[in-house]
Amino acid sequence: MPSRRYEELDAIRGLAALSVVVDHHLMVLPAIAGKALGPLSRAVTAFPLHILWDGHAAVLLFFVMSGFVLSLPFHLGTNPVYTRYLIKRICRIYLPYLVAVIGALSLYLLVSQGGVSGLSRWFNKIWTTPPTAELLLGHALLVTSFRNEVYDPVLWSLVHEMRISLVFPLLMIPVLKWRMTSIVAGFTAVSLCAQMAYRMVGNSYGDYLLTVHYLLAFVLGATVARYRVPLAEYFGSLSAASRLAWVATALVLYDFEFVLQGVSVLHVGPADDYAVFLGSVMLIVGALGSRLAGSALRSRIPVFLGKISYSLYLWHAVVLLTVVNLTYPKYSLVIILPASIILGLAVAIVAHRWVELPSIALGRWLVAESRRLDPRTRLTILGVNPVTSMMGEAEATACPSE
C-alpha cells in the first residue's frame, strides 16, 4: 500500500486536542474539578457528554496514533538511519516544546497572582511554584522525572512521548515479526508488570513505570498500521447496523472511566486505560474503513484542527492561565473561558506557523546535511548504529506531540 497522508487521522487528532482544551477550561470551575456536582454538572461530567471533554482519553488516543504513524515507514519497507529519525523527532517534539516552556515560565513570572481565590484546586496547583534549578533542569531535559505540571499541565504526556520515541525502533522488532495475538498479549503482560511494580515502589520510579505501561498504546497503534488494509476492509464489509454498533462500542470504551462509575469492579487497576486503548483502535479502524466517516473527517475544519493540534495542545493552558490571572475576578468566567479558547486557537495558529513549521523544516535540513556528510559513519553512537537497517523516517504526524 503506497504511502499517503491519513487526513482522517489528522482530523481525529485535532478534535481530540480540542477536547483537551475544553477539559482544562472546565477544570477551572470548582464544581467540575472538585466533583461537588449539582444536576447540570453531574450531566456534563457523566457519559456520554463527558466524551466531548475526556482529556485523559484524548492523550491515550494520541499515543495510539503516534504508534500508527511512526510505524508506517517500517511497514512500507524503507530502511533509513536511526539518527536521522532521532534528529527529526527532536526537532518535531522538543523544539516547539521548549519554546512553549519558555513562554509559560515567562508569563508565569509576569502575570501570576500566586493562586486565584474562588477557582479550583486544579487551577491553583499551576503557576504557584517558583522556578528552581532542579525544576528548570528537568524541563530542559524533558525525559527525566520532574514536576512537569507546574507551568504547563500538558507536559506530562510529552515526557512519555519523547521517552518512547527514543526506543520506538526497538518496539518495531516484535511488531514486524510476531503475530497480532502475540504482540497484544506480550505487551499487555509488560504493562501489567509495570503497573504491579508501580504499586510496590510508589513514586520512586513511578513516572518511568508509567512510560513502560504506555508502550502498549504505541505498539497497538503500530499493529493497527501493520494490518490497516485488512482491518479497514473488514470494517467496510460490515452492515450499517454493525458499523454503528462498532462506533458506539468504541465511544463507550473511549470514555470508559466515566461509564457505570458506581460499579468499581469494572474500573480495577489499568482497566480504564485498556478500554481507552481498545476504543482508540476501534475509532482508527472505523475512520479508515468508512467512506462516510472518512469524508466527514477530511473536511476543512477537522483537518485544520489536526494541523495545529500540537501547538494548540502546547499553548492552550498557557493562554488560559494568562487570561484568567489577568482578568479574574474583574470579569465573569462566562466571558473569560470562551475568550480564552478563541485566543488559544489564535495563538496555536501563530505558533504552528512560526515555531512548529520552522522546527520541522530544521529537522529536514539537518537530515539533508547528514546525508551529504554520510551519516552512517558520522551520526552514530560510538561509531556503531544498532538500528540502521530498521529505522524509518516518519514525516507525517499523529499525536499533538507528533
What does this structure look like?
- The structure is a single chain.
- The protein is mainly α.
- It has one domain (7-378).
- Helix content is 70%, strand content 0%.
- The protein is built from 18 helices and no strands.
- It has helices at residues 7-26, 30-33, 39-44, 55-75, 82-111, 121-124, 133-141, 155-177, 180-201, 206-226, 228-237, 240-254, 271-289, 291-297, 300-307, 309-327, 333-372, 375-378.
- The longest helix has 40 residues, at 333-372.
- It starts with 6 loop residues before the first helix and ends in a 24-residue tail after the last helix.
- It comes from Singulisphaera acidiphila (strain ATCC BAA-1392 / DSM 18658 / VKM B-2454 / MOB10).
